[in-house]
Amino acid sequence: MPGTALQAWAGQDQALTALESALAAADADHVEVFVAARTGHHTRFAGERVHQPQTIIECQVMARAVAGTGSARVAVSSLAGARDAVAAASDMARRRDGAGGGGRPHGVTGPGGIPSAAGLCHDSTLAWDAGARSALAGRIMDGAGSAGVSAAGVLTAAITELAVVTSAGQRCYAAATEAGFSLTVQAGEASSYAADLGRDVSGLSVEERAETAVSQAAATGNPVPVPDGVHDVVFGGLATAELIGFLPDFGFTGPAVAAGIGLAATRPGAELAPAGVTVADDATAGAGLPFPFDCEGTPKRRVELIAAGHVGGAVSDLASATATGGHSTGHAHIARESSPAPEAANLIMMPGAASEADLIAGVERGLYIQRLWYNRLVDAEAGTVVGTSRDGCFLIEDGKLTAGLRTGRFTESVLGALARTDGIGSRLISLPVPNVWNGCSSAPAIRVRGFRFGSRPGKV
Amino acid sequence: MSEQLPHAAQADLGPAHRWGDLAGGLATAGPLLDAAVSRAADGGASYADVRLSETQELRLYAVSGNAPDERIEGSLGLGVRVLVDGVWGFASRPLRDAADAVAAARDALSNARAAAVGSRERVTLPPRAAECGLYQTTAAVDPFAVGGAVRERVVAGALAAAAATAGVVQAQAGVNAKRSHRYFASTEGSRQEQHFVETGGMVLAVAAGGSVVQRRSYPNSFFGNTAAAGWEYVEGLRLTEQAARVGAEAVQLLTAPVADSGTADIVIGPAQLALQVHESTGHALELDRILGDEANFAGRSFIGPDAVGRLQYGSAAVNVVADATVPGTRGSFMFDDEGTRTRRTMLVTEGVITNFLSSRDSAARIGAESTASARSDGWGFLPLCFATNVFLEPGTGSTGDLLDRMGSGYYLDDNRSWSIDSQRLNFQFGTEAAWEVRKGKRTRLLRNFSYGGITPQFWGSLEAVAGPADFRTFGMPCGKGEPKEWGFLSHGAAPALFRGVRIGVA
Q: N or C: which end of chain A has fewer CB within 10 A?
């Protein structure tokens, strides 16, 4: 089969050697320099063609220097430029020394404390090459065509690397494979959906789940509108993962705590949900996209945002930890076109004991919502989010899935939904978090007693 | 802005474009482009194109109480796209040396051959004559040449002004600049170069009182506004003066009333309306989406491929144009990212769909010409159909005239939340601020304003658009594709009057 082999772009020895050599160019009080690289192989397909087979290699080397009260970052796209980046950041930081404009810059991470990176790279994912992915895409599209439906999706194999070296002695490197898929099957106005993400493709059962999605879409008749009103709703793992992805916006970040805004700052320890509800950012766990440290070289710590139903802690980076007088939890992040800010990059809702079928069986009349779409924050204090349902949603009647559902709009509180959760599934499903490096949200299915679709009382 | 043959020396470029490894024109970039194109052609590609670009971004952002973050990010790389036996392949990588150009072409060929295994349908790309040209944006004052102390003073001044009103708990201010050299070559003989400089600024104030948190921003929510211009754009924003206003308004919103839920007449300001155009017009008219290519992620569209000349999208007051030839915005260019020369294209004419936002691939599938809407996120990602300088054409009169015409209702602007379904049909937006309008005059400030609707019904309720004097453009990033890439776009509108819109929906 043709197809380029999946391999790390930088490599441990080359990355650490280049970064350590670059530190020699530093003329500053503190310096950190990291390289974040990713080689992604993506097979996109729709209808009857693989229309976007891609290999995308990205690499960013970023240096941060601190000189007195000044600090600055400089980034380039190759390891060969690391030394120049460190020198330029040092120059900028010295220029900024004494310029004022806010608090004193934070320092850099000291040595050690990095958990083992074992188990992050999987041969099965490395071997999932373009030929294998394309052949699978062809089988999925053929299967869909035979069933009288159409399929569109993406199959991804990637390897992500991060290396960090600091003037305080931190030195770390890790590489991790990543496998993911998502698939939408359209049958007229009805549709189904499947997706998952992890380090090891062999744990994703891609073909089996694709076949299920195809048969589910083919068996769905004309969908019906989502009835306006409050329903008992079983959210599939993907929809739940979308919902819990909003928790950091409700005040579970260091900057929010520093500003005195949000739940962690204003209602620490308050009861939010039943004791079975625990949501943590845990990059040390096996689920989702675990990774041992952040781009400041700080080891990642498990942070429980909701601990057994109660308000927990906040994720932080060095800057926000300095502002609040604590220690970084290892969640430093620098998004494009944004100020650096800590991110919960591997959110996980702890699974329960029920199967998804059990959760559905416990609903006499309600909704099964597999996928949510275009969800946006409306009110961080109330936890209100607006969004729509999308593919693979069904009525539940007498504990069974029946008619497919059209798109329905909701404006509801995520916190309220968690408070009314009375069942938690046992199987985690993961989805990528856009615009967050190595970002992932993982959750089981949940059953919520009372979630409104359509207009709210007094609203149009 | 200028058009001429690709240049051979830095002297052909404006001062703000004379920087970096790729400032030397095709004398520098040509061998790299040729190496990739030749490797692709020799490897069996019936068509190939190469995008080589170098970019540098400068940001100074400050959050109250924290040390400012100043950073410069550079990137140099290329992407190669090939068509082999009717199947596409793509590969991109950072550029370290000439070997990377050849390696990217090799990987693209390999991907196309692998994709053939799963593809049942083949692409036929209509041939095209070579297109060559040079484009450069205008920057009166090179933002990268502005001293650090000047940037610092602007940001610190805005930050202090935004935080000056008691009740503001967090303020943020920032300035940014981006410059890039973009080269394009294809097996059809096209050789193009484009050079861009963008500059922007922002300020945001967050106020809190009791359990209420409110925000105001300027000149647009979500990281301000960016234009294809120099530092003069930042100076024109008058950030400090506006920061004082947004800080005060954020605090006023804490105790402002909420509009009753119901149906009302509204005048939507240009910043919010630009986003409305983006979400419900631009996305809905992307031809790759309409044809199903994006069904798995971005979604499809309620508009079908047979809509041109047939679908009544809105009222006769709705005229929407895609025009990347308009200078000075984030969506201004001469050639899109697959080398198609841009032109002014009416998308909606007096309420009727008249064209799509298309690429070569998608246009060929409906037997049409590309409308030069293929854009990509730098060198690293495939060109996809993106909305490019999609504007609601202005009407006549002033915003004040519109408010008089409305009489009673609401004036709203600056987005706070936005959501639209995957068919681009059912939407719900919230704005940072709204004002009650009585007898044609803005009165009290309102918080948590929201409105919603169904796209063609909503645009069918458009009664009038203010004139060119009140037209504004806004640069914005947009996410699409798998893996998700950003398109950097611009949309524009003048305030417009809509009748009978559902409000208070959130």
A: N
B20 pLDDT more than 70: yes
Bridging pattern class, strands A409-413 and B409-420: unpaired
Alpha-carbon dihedral sign for residues B1, B2, B6, B10? negative
In chain A, where are the structural domains located?
12-219, 229-453
Q: What is the pLDDT of residues B139-155, one digit of tens each?
A: 999 999 999 999 999 99
Which two structure tokens, joined as six digits, stand for B92?
Answer: 């991109």
**Every domain of chain B and the residues it spans:** 10-254, 262-503
Instruction: Please state, for a pLDDT cut of 90, what percent of chain A lies above it.
Output: 92
SS3 A25: coil
Closest C-alpha among A119, A199, A137, A185 to residue A3: A137
Residue A101, pLDDT > 70, answer: no
- C-alpha angle B465/B467/B469, rounded to 5°? 140
| pLDDT tens-digit readout, A434-446 | 889 999 999 999 9
What percent of chain B stands above pLDDT 70?
98
- Check: CB of residue B67 under 8 Å from CB of residue A104: yes
CA–CA distances in Å: residue A151 to residues A213, B216, B351, B378: 9, 43, 33, 29
Q: How far apart are CA A151 and CA A136, in angstroms?
A: 12
The sheet that has A365-369: what strands, in order across it? A400-404, A394-397, A365-369, A229-235, A446-453, A421-424
More confident residue, B392 or B26: B392
Burial (Cβ within 10 Å: 0-12, 13-18, ≥19) of residue A203? middle
Beta-carbon contacts of residue B38 (< 8 Å; ≥ 6 apart)? none
Is residue A78 a contact partner of residue A59, using CB atoms and an 8 Å limit?
yes
Mean pLDDT of A80-107: 90
Residue A387: list chain B partners with CB under 8 A: 419
Residues within 8 A of A (CB atoms), B 166-225 only: 169-170, 172, 174, 176, 206, 208, 211-213, 223
Better-predicted residue by pLDDT, B454 or A118:
B454
**Cβ-based burial of B289 (10 A; exposed 0-12, middle 13-18, buried ≥19):** buried
SS3 of residue A211 by DSSP: helix
Architecture of the B10-254 domain: 2-Layer Sandwich (3.30)
Q: Which of A448-457, B138-147, B384-393, B447-456 has the lowest mean pLDDT?
A: A448-457
Reported as a pLDDT band with limits 50, 70 and 90, residue B3 is very low
pLDDT range class, residue A214, cuts 50, 70, 90: very high
Angstrom distance (rounded) from CA B94 to CA B354: 40
Polymer length in residues for chain A: 460
Q: Would you give the DSSP letter of residue A35?
A: E
Superfamily of domain A12-219: PmbA/TldD superfamily (3.30.2290.10)
How far is A186 from A151, CA to CA, in rounded Å? 6
Nearest to B92 among A57, A72, A100 (CB): A57
b/e for A369-401, b at 16 or more Cβ within 10 A? Answer: bbbbbbbbbbbbbebbbbbbbbbbbbbbeeeeb
In a mutational test of the B interface, the residue from A48, A55, A375 whose CB has the highest number of chain B CBs within 10 Å is A55
How many Å apart are CA B279 and CA B302, to the nearest integer? 13
ipTM metric: 0.96
Question: Chain B, 300-359: which have a CB under 8 Å from a chain A CB?
Answer: none
Nearest to A340 among B69, B212, B502 (CB): B69
Q: What per-residue confidence (pLDDT) applies to B4?
A: 54
